[in-house]
Amino acid sequence: MKKNQIKLYFTCLLMVAGLVSCTDLEIEESDSIISEGFQGLADPSSTVNQLYNRLNGQYGDQGNLFALSEVTTDAAIVPTRGTDWGDNGQWSSLHQHLWTPEHVFVINVWNDWNANQLIASQVLDARSNPSSVNIGEASFIRALSMWVILDNYGQVPFRDTLLPSSSLPEVLTGEAAVAFIIADLDTAISNLPNIAAGSGAANGRAGKAAARYLKAKVLLNKHVYLGTSPDSGDMNAVVSLVDEISNEGYALQSGYFNIFRDTADNETIWSLAAGVGNRIFNGLHYNSTSLGGGGWNGFATLSEYYDLFEGDPNFNRVELDETPLDMQEERRGGVPSAGLPFTGRPGTTDLNGFEAGSNVGNGFLVNQQYALDGTPLQDRAGAPLTFKRDFKDGTGANNIINNDETTGIRVMKYAPRFGEFLSHEIFFRYADAHLMKAEALMRGGGDPTTLVNTLRVIRGAAPILGVVTESDVLAERGRELFAEIWRRNDLIRFGQYTRDWEFKAAGSIGNDKYKLFPIPSSQLLANPALVQNPGY
Amino acid sequence: MKIKLLKSMLLLGAMLSFGLIQAQSVSGTVIDNNGIPLPGANVIVQGTTNGAQTDFDGNYSLNNVASDAILVISYIGYDTQEIPVNGQSTINVTLQEGNVLNEVVVIGYGTTTVKDATGSVTAVSSEDFNGGNIASPEQLIQGKSAGVNIQQTSGEPGAGISINIRGSNSVRANNNPLFVVDGVPLSGDSTAPSGDSGIGGTAVRNPLNFINPNDIASISILKDASATAIYGSRGANGVVIITTKTGRTGSKAGTFEFSTNLSIATPAEEYDLLEKDQFLSAVTLFGGNASSVDYGANTNWQDFITRTTASTNNNLSYKMNYGDGNIRATFGYSNQFGVVEKSDLERITGRINARHRFLDGDLNVGLSATVSRVNDQSAPLSASAGFRGDILGASYAANPTWPTDPDFTDGSAQILPANLLAYSDNRTKTNRFLVNGFAEYKFTDELTGKINLGYDTSDGENVSVLSADLLNFTGISGTGFGVYNTLDRESSLLEATLNYKKDFENSKLDILAGYSFQDFESSGRNAAGRGFTTTNLGFMARDLRNSVNNAANSITGSYQQFYYGTNTADLIVNRLFSPMGVIAGDTSALDFDRSVNAISADTFDSTDELQSFFGRVNYSIAGKYLFTGTVRADGSSRFGPDNAYSVFPSGAFAWQMGEEDFIGENVSTLKLRLSAGITGNQSGLGYGNFVARQRFSGIGIGNDGVINPNGLQIVATDVPDLKWESTLNLNVGVDFGFNNDRLNGSLDVYQNTTTDVLLRTPPAAPAVDPFQFGNVDAKILNQGIEFALGYDWVQSDDVTFTTSFNIAYNENEVQDFASSINTGEINGQGLSGAFAQRFEAGYSLYSYYMAEFAGLDSSGQPTYVDQNGDGVGDVFTDKVFVGEDALPDITTGLALNLSVKNWDFGAFFSGQFGFSIYNNTRNGFFTSGSITNARNVTTDLISSGEAAGTSADVSTRYLEKGDFVRFQNMNIGYNVPLSGEGAFKTMRLSVTGQNLFLITDYSGLDPEVTVATGDLGSGVPTRGIDWAAFPNPRTITIGINASF
Fold this sequence. Notes:
- The complex is a heterodimer of chains A (536) and B (1044).
- Chain A is α+β, with helices and mostly antiparallel strands.
- Chain A is built from 16 helices and 13 strands.
- Chain A is globular.
- The mean pLDDT of chain A is 92.
- Helices cover 7% and strands 48% of the residues of chain B.
- Chain B is built from 9 helices and 53 strands.
- The N terminus of chain B is likely disordered.
- The interface between A and B is large, with 108 and 125 residues.
């Protein structure tokens, strides 16, 4: 081979190598479906499934929305117990009303529920070709998500999926925000199917009743968002929406704690496949049960909330057949003196002849706790495991920090004996709708007494004598709906959210700033249309 | 026609260069100062590419040498010599050993000498490498270069590394420099799949694990833009060029070299924990009931979980130089055991390096191939372990009265170390094959073309299982859980370069132009299973693999995911790219062999591409004035079409003042270097962040084996404006040498300014992802000074004694950032959501932000400084920047080398100053709250005055100075004097000690630590947080090295 030839070949090789390998640097669709900007979802039905999965996680969590709704009220407190539950102050600042725009739950709820809105909008985008049911469910979830943001932050950023992703969302407040949500709910009501009461698992998807319930909830609270007094038209609408739900067969049902099992009942309007574990373990002591690795010994309630219920202030015991021993009404539940003998009913497990977890009891756990075999339980330091009404630190003073393991009454809505990892939590319940109707009647100038007492009788509580007042309605809601994330919303609507309760910071009492959570700081930079809520 | 033209031009060029000057032949022998022939020395006609290598007898011959030419003879480790031909036909050369400044240095796409380099480059050749038990290449150069901070992030074998050249320029996960192995830039990503079973995961593996350190000839570190800009987009964090050994120094008959060593490692430090009796009395002291927590045994859990290990490393190599070419082949086997139980790394490597010259040396062809297999075993360790800790943390906290029976439980919810160790297993296997070949052709003496092809492929598999016997783990206890992940990576490289070198009267020109294309494919599958029929860990792993693989094989067509749960009657398949488009919840019969109750699997497959055009001009006048200009245009598929390309230029000037007449004779070297340039960065950004992408979201298996149908979701929102992050680098340096360079050194001052910082920040809500990559309006400034000094104290025939010292100061600051980001997550009991650092303008990266501890009050409760003026010092509301950060201000290294006849001694010290460590281990475990809950603590807690059950929130109470000096390495070697007549040609015996002692005030195990505790979602990496870090070992290695 001549040198020149080789030179030539090598030159060609160099050039060819350069030319052949030149690339336009386009990424290929091997991993995911790629589009320049949002162009519609390829399968909106599955995205709706994903929205439900998101709600399961967001609702089932003991932090985030649950904490913002319960721990910021008189219904829940998470004191520091030794090193436990300090957690960067995220619990104490909620109960004391000292949170800042940096609070992790304030940021998470903002992010999570706004994201739900956007995903729902993506389903609703015409380019996704959603079915009628898709439109119904996505409209419902978008309304729910926007309402959660409105209720907690007072302003809702809305992103139009037809605009480029770099465009800034518009911000809805007051009338405009409520109108947007109501319009979505009307779309939902017309597109969603009727799901019969008592359908069990099928009540895990939103039907017309769930959309009507939410619409009633939004209308009942509307005056709060508008800063006005209740509108009688809205109140009438609430009443008729609840009546429509009732007409579908949803109704009050006796057997309070059985409603929170995963069996079918007429009260459940909408439930989620959210794990009940967080609700069970967040308050239980480490030694309360061996199920699920034991409790986390955090959440408790204030004695003043416990005292809303009838019964002995210091004891809350039940017979092994759950008959109250301390004059308490059914909803306060009680602590059994031993575990229940194993009954073999579905969803329960046998632990040496006992129904696992049945020693824990229901409702409000106070004073001595017992093991399955009836032995009085001890705390980790070897002292009797008695849940105390008060929160005392090492010096004996009432304090939200430096508590020991036993302070505070614990709250148990989902009993561990029904399965500590059951994926079934009720979000919308007819008893709430029933009380909303009573409240709407009252706010419209009517008398809620009959309605409230109907519920009380079913719950085995004495009817209220005389005319049921506004504070009676609030107290009834507190008793009926404890740990169902409505407490903050109720207290605000009844004007009680800024009142004093144990451990609330002095400077926060009567401070309206805390009626809304702050907008996360990074969001104010990202979207100048957002305005920080007053006082932050 | 074009080709014909080109051909004519090339011919013309050739005629011009050959024809005009009278040419002759030159031959000769190159020997060292001991008279021993040097095979493989380079002999080059100055200003041309006409050159040859000496054969095994040190002989060379060159044709076409102009009678007035100058020969340049160079050899790594020896002074380069320049000898005028002056018509001689025989030129014999004696090279003098070891003048650093004349050493050949490998730089990007070529070589230079330290003398001619315009940029800031440090080269370390094999004789200067750190010795001992070296698991991966970067350990060879730890502390050897000023401003290069190499941190072994843990003592775990094969764990990831953190290398910061001149501070931290970016704030993303992969802040390491670019590694180039024999011309092939590596992707920098770990090839081992992660194996996080929820309890313990495989820590990020070192991407260089596949290279046998024994195969490395030299490592060059390119620090400033003048040196790194040739790598453009990938040079922002510096470049580390690894050159492997070739057979150049082999003999014709071939030489075998064998080395073997044995390393004994023990944990260098341990915590002073309470023993049984101390523990029980402490429980009583802090208000507990000792008898209720006494389980009778007396166990030292720290000893239980750690161990003394013996590791081996064996290498056999063969090298041969047959004149026209050479070959080197090696086989390496090492088995390294970590000082924590169940952690080891076995590596088998083979490597071939072959070179051949055709056509009288006009065509040079080379081929290198490495094949490796790495088998890892990991203990259940987790950098982001929750309040119970991982296996290490749980051992520190474990009640010393617990027995070591793996089935023992005290009924509490703590992690039982014996139980967790016995009932978990985590193994990774990674195969990797890296091959590259080049052909270099000399068109003329001035013009050379080169094509370099590289192919890098790896496949890895991790199986991590936790048996049903594991106690206190929800969803695992009584059920069993496992993950089975695979990862395949493939990268191809094509590079073509043209090099033109020309000498003028008193100036030299060297032009390089090139093209480069590289793609990186990453694919694999992450699978999980819950509900096993066996508790045998080996059988569980087998069942999981079989069930997943059988399920995968039963599916026809392409798919993204599949799963079955206790609530599904079919195998559910989610397809993205079926012929009918997206199919969610497609069903397939469950008719394959399976033994796990619920399985989920999710696949991924993405490819990134880089394409570049680059050029460099070196021009020197009179050997005194050196100019370098570099430009590289880089395109990346990680950016949209409008922003794909960016141009990264640099320029440098160096002045050899030492050559000027006005500088005295005793100044042997004095060189001033100036450079400025821009480099880019896109690493850590990830695939397809500029477009909208949708795929099926992850699948969760419920604790009861139930799987809810999942759905298609937008996983990336388009960010069309996404563009390159860029760093402007300015460097001024001086190299100096006195008294024939007996005293030599360099001083560099630099400033790096990173702009368009690629960072995950919150987009305006509503957004699908709460964090999104964007170019944030912020600057990251790194500026500093580096100083290196070497002195040859004694230079005699029998004794030499040299020292070299380096020290670097770096200052970091975030500027012009409107927001702030909390980062540096702190884990532990009562520390959910806690953090210790904040990213904010005006402060260094990794600046600590927390309450200031003001001591314990009379009742033993912690108090804090009131910062907000409300009269109350509150640990949560009175947080401030406390003036400390996790980046060392000063890093330094000192090496001493003594040789006496056949003996040699080396000692190496390293130190870091001006940084703080957050002792998360102490905050999370060693508090009165722990002992109140019957968890073990260190002895100093008892006398600390802390009241029982006080809260332990993040504050300066647990922030400590990290300053340290480490006696990192000491070795003694003996070269056995051999006649050369026997079987062995050379033999060397050595003893090396690593991490022999540590001087520090830090109360934890080791201040040189980084545990990735979490970033609260921002993606900002963690630094300086010690959360039950893997203990660093102290290692003694004995080795033997022989050639025959």
